[in-house]
Design brief:
With 421 residues, the chain is an alpha+beta fold. The protein folds into 4 domains: 1-57; 60-161, PAS domain (Beta-Lactamase), CATH 3.30.450.20; 179-242; 244-389, Heat Shock Protein 90, CATH 3.30.565.10. It is 47% helix and 17% strand. The chain has a 5-stranded antiparallel sheet. A 5-stranded mixed sheet has the order 6-7-8-10-9. The longest helix is centred in the first third of the chain and has 49 residues, at 9-57.
């Protein structure tokens, strides 16, 4: 302890003032620190309130899981989409919201991602299938993000129910199909019959002129031939608009006729191959398959400049396959379905019959479009959109860490999932 007895009065007063200033400075510093802490707590509380307001009012379902796949938080929109309350979901594995077989395999997908670090869906949206509390499956858009904290990682999934959108897409396609059928029938029953009457009149005129004016008779006969060609072309258009008959072998007949018409119209080689009969009794499925082949041929001619096209109808393993192979220019490596309406419609049609669509290109061999469909399409069983097999993607097999099934057939990544990035 210091001895202050030898200090003068003035020195003691000076020392006291210095102590008072130090104490005041310390108090002021502590006050500032306290104020800063209060401000930080207020800012944190405000941030939490804003985040809670965003989560509670978001249209999309938002689900947060940890590294083990355990749900940590669920917003009200996700509760509404899946039919569970937050209390029913928090602490449960996110695989609860997936249909089999992905529900059982989800933990393996997650472990594989954490081990390899290879992202397959994070930052990329994809159509997948979810399962509600009542056991019904539904199509949804899913995107995911990863958050790295100091000692762990969190994953957030953003979910939107697209059942209504898919219904509207299906309705638009149905309306288009019915309108095509109506136009085809009008061409066949209306215009074709009128042209046939004109042809008959020309033939009668040719016969009357044959004995009086040979040149005019020849001209009448030439007009009749042109009208006959127009009738043939019109009936071909009519069959193209409404191609598949209700009988089981209608698709094979329609594909054969399609190949013949393509050869005549574009003057290229186009053949149909079917070594054993494949009867498709479901007319809706047959129509979708025909339209897929038709669009693949159009793409091969328009974009690939193909000179040779082969349509093949054959069994492939435990499924059946419709293949359209051409020798044209290969698809570019960076092709995306969103670039072409034709590709998207082909993909959608495949999804409507539970099929998968694959596109394989080779610079030397050209391009092959393959539609693999279940044998359920051969009978009269009801076909449920989105129920498609897990098949190879167009550029190789689908990744093994794909924890959620997709609803579309050609997004070039196979089945999607919450933790594919």
């Amino acid at each position: 302890m210091k001895d202050f007895t030898r200090l003068s009065r003035a020195e003691l007063i000076g020392r006291l003032k210095e102590s008072e200033l130090k104490i005041a400075a310390q108090a002021m510093h502590q006050g500032e620190r306290s104020r800063e802490r209060r401000q930080a707590r207020t800012a944190l509380r405000d941030s939490e309130e804003r985040l809670r307001a965003i989560l509670n009012t978001a249209v999309e379902g938002i689900i947060t899981i940890d590294e083990r796949g355990i749900i940590e938080s669920v917003n009200p929109a996700a509760e509404k989409i899946f039919g569970y309350t937050a209390a029913e979901l928090v602490g449960k594995n996110v695989s609860l919201l997936m249909p089999p077989p992905f529900r059982e395999a989800h933990d393996g997908y997650l472990v594989n991602y954490l081990r390899t670090g290879q992202a397959k869906i994070i930052g990329i949206g994809r159509e997948v299938v979810g399962r509600r509390k009542d056991g019904t499956d539904f199509p949804m858009d899913l995107s995911a993000s990863e958050v790295r904290l100091a000692d762990r990682r969190l994953f957030t999934g953003f979910v939107r129910d697209i059942t209504e959108r898919k219904r509207l897409q299906r309705e638009i396609l149905d309306i288009s199909h019915r309108e095509q059928q109506r136009i085809g029938q009008d061409l066949h029953d209306g215009l074709s019959q009128q042209l046939a009457a004109i042809e008959l009149m020309c033939e009668v005129l040719e016969q009357k002129l044959a004995t009086k004016a040979k040149a005019e008779a020849d001209r009448a006969g030439e007009i009749a031939r042109h009208v006959r060609e127009a009738i043939t072309h019109t009936r071909g258009l009519a069959r193209g608009l409404s191609p598949v008959q209700l009988d089981a072998n209608g698709l094979m007949s329609a594909l054969q006729e399609l190949a013949v018409n393509v050869e005549k119209m574009f003057r290229i080689e186009c053949r149909f191959q079917c070594e054993e009969p494949i009867l498709v009794q479901n007319n809706e499925a047959a129509t979708h398959l025909y339209r897929i082949a038709q669009e693949a041929i159009n793409n091969a001619i328009k974009h690939g400049k193909a000179k040779r096209i082969i349509i093949t109808f054959q069994p492939i393993g435990d499924k059946h396959g419709l293949l359209v192979t051409n020798d044209g220019v290969a698809f570019p490596d960076d092709v995306r379905p969103s670039l072409g309406m034709g590709l998207r419609i082909m993909d959608y049609r495949a999804g409507e019959i539970g099929a998968t669509l694959q596109i394989r290109s080779d610079r030397e061999k050209g391009t092959t479009v393959t539609c693999l469909f279940n044998k359920a399409c051969d009978g009269k069983q009801e076909i449920h959109p989105g129920e498609r097999p897990n098949a190879d993607s167009d550029r190789g097999r689908p990744p093994d860490d794909a924890p959620w099934p997709r609803t579309t057939g050609q997004q070039r990544a196979g089945p999607g999932g919450l933790l594919r990035g």
